[in-house]
Design brief:
Length: about 120
């Protein structure tokens, strides 16, 4: 299974971005998807995840109410809609997939994309 994250960029505080995670090599239907982010010198942290079948979701406290995770199984693609962006959201964002069930933890995922950089200027 290969994942390709895209959609990052440089935006200003309050702007929006939508990240995409294109999955190949398997059918997205079977996988929970997760989004994580990392800044230099810090551990990778969970942002949001979405179950494979029943649309259960989890969001990190810092993004609740601003970010929305979704998936389009027909396109084999997951998304992270990010609104009201803040400078603290600046990070490399990674998408990940797992068949082990919904998890906000890095260890819960078997497959990772390469990351896309999001920079939010003040």
């Amino acid at each position: 299974v290969q994942l390709q994250a895209s959609g990052g960029g440089v935006v200003q505080t309050g702007d929006s971005l939508r990240l995409s995670c294109a999955v190949s090599g398997s059918t997205l239907d079977y996988y929970a998807i997760g989004w994580f982010r990392q800044v230099p010198g810090k551990e990778r942290e969970g942002v949001s995840c979405l179950s494979s079948s029943d649309d259960n979701t989890w969001y990190g406290e810092s993004v609740k109410g601003r970010f929305t995770i979704s998936r389009d199984n027909a396109k084999n693609t997951g998304y992270l809609q990010m609104n009201s962006l803040k400078p603290d959201d600046t990070a490399i964002y990674y998408c990940a997939a797992t068949r082990k069930g919904l998890s906000g933890a890095v260890a819960g995922y078997d497959y990772w994309g390469q990351g896309t950089l999001v920079t939010v200027s003040s």
